[in-house]
Amino acid sequence: MSTRGGTALVTGASSGIGAAYAGRLASQGWDTVLVARRAQRLDDLAQRLRETAGTMVETLVADLYEPDDLVRVARRAADDDVGFLLNNAGINGYGPFPGLEPELMARVLGVNVLAVTALTRAAVPAMLERGHGTVVNVASQLAFAGALPPHPLPERAVYGGTKGYVVTFTRTLAAELAGTPLRIQVLCPGLTATEFHRSRGDKPVPGRDRSVHEDGGMPVDQVVDASLAALGTGEVVCVPGLEDPALIDGLAEAELAIRTAARRGGS
């Protein structure tokens, strides 16, 4: 599927899903703006994309938790050449909630919630004005695991909450923009073969070499395949590996049933 449309801005582009998605978009002819904290990683990826795809590549070294950096990236996202926004940057802050460091908790909320919202808000108006554009916000299957206890799942109260926000925000935004030319998706991968679990997010994983955490998981290329295929069919909620998309429809039906029953109960 071709999604050609100008420039794609990808956050969290230094490794994992972000790097793989940027490579796929570049191979389809997109120019890219790569955003992450690790300058060397971004430079390495930029060089590869220029050599293999022959496209224009910009790098923006930024920590999306820092207000000045977020403003700088938001300004770039609002430019009229950006036709694809991938909000992939995220950190986990896993650990028991009573012992979660306040600084790390604030960082998880800032990167996973505020940055996603701010960059989407920056990009959407220009996309609407041009009459085309795509926004993909990366959440997690842990957004659907609120009642499940940890072990083997991580202790994740704040992380799961932020990803639940991304799911609800994106679904609601997609409903608001229904009938416009924009494509809106929330991508909800499960365990993926990246280095995500090698850091809680307070500091990036060191070194220039890409790595995979010991837990393994779905190859990143399969996650990107699923996302692009879902964009082609207009699916708002993409859960890689989910064979029965009717389960997503069932989620919406259950939500409607709860609201309807609550109204009746209060009458």
Please explain how this structure is put together.
The protein is of the alpha/beta class. It has helices spanning 16-27, 39-53, 67-77, 102-130, 157-176, 220-233, 246-265, and strands at residues 7-11, 31-36, 57-61, 82-87, 133-138, 182-187, 237-238. The protein has a seven-stranded parallel beta sheet with strand order 3-2-1-4-5-6-7, with helices on both faces. Helix 1 (16-27) crosses helix 6, helix 3 runs parallel beside helix 4 and helix 4 (102-130) packs parallel to helix 5. The chain is globular. The relative contact order is 0.13.
Q: Could you tell me the number of beta strands?
A: 7
Structural class computed from helices and strand pairing: alpha/beta
The helix/strand series, from N terminus to C terminus, equals EHEHEHEHEHEHEH
- Sheet with the most strands? 7 strands, parallel
Question: What does the overall shape look like?
Answer: globular
Q: Share of helix among residues?
A: 40-55%
Distance between the termini: 49 Å
Output mean pLDDT: 94
Over the alpha carbons, how many angstroms does the gyration radius reach? 18 Å
Instruction: Please give the order of strands in the largest beta sheet.
Output: 3-2-1-4-5-6-7
What is the compact description of this entry?
This protein is α/β, with parallel strands linked by helices. It has helices spanning 16-27, 39-53, 67-77, 102-130, 157-176, 220-233, 246-265, and strands spanning 7-11, 31-36, 57-61, 82-87, 133-138, 182-187, 237-238.
